[in-house]
């Protein structure tokens, strides 16, 4: 986790997806605490892949469906063709874990074999932001 940067982005279920400036090849921890419509899940998954997410960890409500949506978005982005390891997007779901465990995994085990992912985006899908709390939880995991 040397030279790593953590960014926090809160989105409510009805938020528009912003342009992720300054991110290229990054890791994302998707913390889902709100009910998200399936079309929003798919749009968000495509947006993450288009923005350069190379490793996604889903935690919270429907995290296994999030894993599937992100994995499918990554395959869709390459027209379901076989891709070299350098272009592969890794996706995990952490449904039976505490958030601290998912954050620990993001820091210590979520490694891309071809890229150093020095930026982690905490994408918080919730009605109310909790930036300070989630950043502190991430740093102490």
Automatic annotation (TrEMBL):
It comes from Duganella flavida. This is DUF7684 domain-containing protein. InterPro entries: DUF7684. The lineage of its organism: Bacteria, Pseudomonadati, Pseudomonadota, Betaproteobacteria, Burkholderiales. Residues 6-139 form the DUF7684 domain. It comes from the Bacteria.
């Amino acid at each position: 986790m040397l030279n790593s940067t953590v960014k926090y982005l809160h989105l409510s279920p009805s938020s528009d997806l912003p342009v992720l400036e300054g991110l290229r090849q990054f890791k994302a921890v998707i913390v889902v605490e709100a009910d998200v419509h399936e079309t929003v899940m798919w749009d968000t998954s495509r947006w993450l892949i288009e923005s350069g997410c190379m490793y996604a960890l889903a935690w919270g409500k429907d995290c296994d469906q999030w894993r599937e949506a992100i994995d499918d978005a990554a395959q869709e982005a390459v027209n379901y063709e076989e891709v070299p390891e350098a272009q592969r997007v890794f996706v995990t779901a952490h449904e039976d874990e505490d958030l601290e465990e998912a954050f620990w995994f993001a820091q210590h085990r979520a490694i891309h074999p071809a890229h150093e992912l020095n930026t982690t985006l905490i994408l918080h899908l919730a009605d109310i932001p909790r930036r300070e709390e989630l950043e502190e939880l991430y740093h102490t995991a």
